[in-house]
Amino acid sequence: xxxxxxxxxxxxxxxxxxxxxxxxxxxxxxxxxxxxxxxxxxxxxxxxxxxxxxxxxxxxxxxxxxxxxxxxxxxxxxxxxxxxxxxxxxxxxxxxxxxxxxxxxxxxxxxxxxxxxxxxxxxxxxxxxxxxxxxxxxxxxxxxxxxxxxxxxxxxxxxxxxxxxxxxxxxxxxxxxxxxxxxxxxxxxxxxxxxxxxxxxxxxxxxxxxxxxxxxxxxxxxxxxxxxxxxxxxxxxxxxxxxxxxxxxxxxxxxxxxxxxxxxxx
Length: 266
Prior knowledge:
By secondary structure, the protein is α/β, with parallel strands linked by helices. It has a single domain (about 1-135, about 180-190, about 210-255), classed as Rossmann fold (3-Layer(aba) Sandwich). It contains seven helices and eleven strands. The longest helix is centred in the first third of the chain and has 15 residues, at about 45-60. The chain is globular. The chain starts with a helix and ends in a 9-residue tail after the last helix. The relative contact order is 0.17.
């Protein structure tokens, strides 16, 4: 418990958790691949997100490689990484052979961390939909502002992704609505309080409804032999300078990589 409290203090103070023999020896604690290929809408925050994750790696002693080349998805190459981070990917980004390699990677105990538009990806690949937990439906817009300040209710503080966060976290975001509610299949870590903003999405002329009183925005679960973490936050480039968001992402990456506790189901 003392070690986890110290880690939380370090995360809040400097987004750094340099503990363990690997950090002491100078060897990376784990390896991460950031994948940010887009085949539909492209977020202009992707470069900022890649840079922020690389900086997190430098400060927390894990190796980060980044690519938009889908040919990186081979059995041999994926075996080099403890976690693959899908950063605002969109559309169909992998072919059948690449999908097969990623499925085998997860089944072998690999980690997945999805950020923001990772849920707006591969709608025809049902296995991926199960991995991310839910597909994007829409976000506020049209009848109301696309970006709104709202309150995130952090439901658990026993994970690396949530320990640094306040119980009620007020922030601006493009708040995603999902096609289905993953609650029950995943452990919801945080939900956005729809009473604090207008959740109506753009996908219907009058604005589609939100997701109701329990609107998941971040979650984790075990899936097909591997570990999966997802957060819908992270649309704007400026958000990747938000220390609390970076602490949340760092914790989720560490959980998915298997170097932090993963209390997210069997």
